[in-house]
Amino acid sequence: MNELFKNVIGWTKAIVEFGFQLALVFLVVDVLFGGLTGIVDNVAALIDSFVGNGIVGLIALLFFLAIYKD
Fold it and tell me: Cβ distance 49 to 60 under 8 Å?
């Protein structure tokens, strides 16, 4: 059973890493070619949602960063 959870966690981490890498590629494309993907607006909205919620947003951001580091 533990092996199953390790496999699921491994695949989940791989998918999340792939998503972050894909987002970085889209971000570079968006910066170079001016609004092709729209990801800059989405990232700005995401950051604004964390900042706009005060301490709760800061705690949520720290929580997501802690999950990402593991």
Answer: no
C-alpha to C-alpha distances, 28 to 2, 7, 22, nearest whole angstrom? 39, 32, 10
Phi, psi of 53 (to 5 degrees): -100, 10
Measure the CA–CA gap between 48 and 51, rounded to whole angstroms: 5
Q: Which residues contact 40 (CB under 8 A, 6 or more apart)?
A: 27, 30, 31
The helix/strand/coil state of 1 is coil
Q: Is the pLDDT of residue 2 over 80?
A: yes
Q: Name the pTM for this structure.
A: 0.62
- Are the beta carbons of 30 and 36 closer than 8 angstroms? yes
